[in-house]
Amino acid sequence: LPSWFSVTSAAGAQVREMHSAGSLSYSRTFKIVVVGDSGVGKTSLTYCFCTGQWPSATQTTIGVDFRERVLDIDGEKIKVQLWDTAGQERFRKSMVQHYYRDAHAAVFVYDVSDVASFRSLPVWLEECRQNSLGPDTPRVLIGNKVDLLPSVTAASVMEQARHLAEVHGMPFHLCSARGGGGERVDAIFTALAVQLKRQGCGRGRRVAGRAEDSVVLLSHPLCDVIILLGTFWVFLLLEMF
Ligand SMILES: Nc1nc2c(ncn2[C@@H]2O[C@H](COP(=O)(O)OP(=O)(O)OP(=O)(O)O)[C@@H](O)[C@H]2O)c(=O)[nH]1
After folding, report:
1. How far apart are CA 231 and CA 227, in angstroms?
2. Where do transmembrane segments lie in this chain (predicted)?
3. Which of 48, 113, 178, 237 has its CA 20 to 30 A from that of 39?
4. Residue 230: is its pLDDT beyond 50?
5. Taking the CA atoms of the chain, what radius of gyration do you get in angstroms?
6. Quick one: which atom of ligand 1 is closest to the CA of 177?
7. Phi, psi dihedrals of residue 29, rounded to the nearest 5°
8. Among candidate residues 196, 139, 140, the one with its CA nearest the CA of residue 173
9. Of the residues 47, 54, 58, 186, which should be mutated to test ligand 1's pocket, given the most ligand atoms within 8 Å of the CB?
10. Digit-coded pLDDT (tens) for 135-191
11. Residue 100: what are its φ and ψ, rounded to 5°?
């Protein structure tokens, strides 16, 4: 298979999709946090978008997992970095603020076959808001696992989800990370990346009181990863003793 192919996204931008992000150069990074209850499919969705494949098996995320993919949007190579955060409270704890730090967008996921995961959404929205990802930040609501048989409850919850998304000014999408749902998953994350590019996101991040050029190293996404992993291990050691 070629490492890229051209598509025109729903937003009308010319997007070349590149799955093998590892060695590709890029001019900026979009950090997108993916949140929602445990088991709603965050790992599956992010894996699906970044590899073009359905994961044969997933494990509960501890802390956070990172997945990346480089997209060529209107001739500019942009790294889309997805932060697949743990849904279980005990695996998040003190790391929450690092998830949200300098994020450009948030994706909220619920499972259409699990009403409780929908009822939790206000908590996730509030957590985002408290970490500076309020209404001005591009946000998307995803109802995942539509491949599971829709029940009457699921249909009524879908209506409520549509309403919730409208109230919070974010698009609402239904999709499935399983089987043939990949194209839809692709379209959702790609459209979000196109929106972030149009808003001029990711052109170097600011640190109070410093010129942007001098903080390029400090604001490198790797710094987030190092801080996060450091915090995680300290937290684990404290739990053990
Ligand atoms: N039928 C179906 N199952 C799915 C779908 N997406 C995920 N799953 C399954 O749901 C289970 C949980 O998926 P994960 O992707 O690990 O969920 P998560 O939100 O990352 O969970 P945490 O890491 O605990 O926060 C796994 O068994 C997946 O195979 C989907 O679209 N349809």
Report:
1. 6
2. 215-238
3. 237
4. yes
5. 18
6. 31
7. -120, 135
8. 140
9. 58
10. 899 999 999 999 886 666 677 889 999 999 999 999 999 999 886 778 899 999 999
11. -85, -15
What average pLDDT does range 130-136 have in this prediction? 89
Tokens of 227: 């801080």
pTM to 2 decimal places: 0.81
Given the DSSP bridges, would you call strands 4-8 and 14-18 parallel, antiparallel or unpaired? antiparallel
Can you tell me the distance from the alpha carbon of 179 to that of 94, in angstroms, rounded to the nearest whole number? 35
Atom in ligand 1 nearest the alpha carbon of residue 36:
19
Phi-psi group of 77: left, alpha or beta (phi > 0 → left; psi -120 to 50 → alpha; rest → beta): beta
CATH architecture classification, 4-239: 3-Layer(aba) Sandwich (3.40)
Position in ligand 1 atom list of the atom nearest CA 87: 25
CB 70 within 8 A of CB 78: yes
Cα(27) to ligand 1 centroid in Å equals 32
Long-range contacts, 163-167 (Cβ 8 Å, 24+): 164/121, 165/141
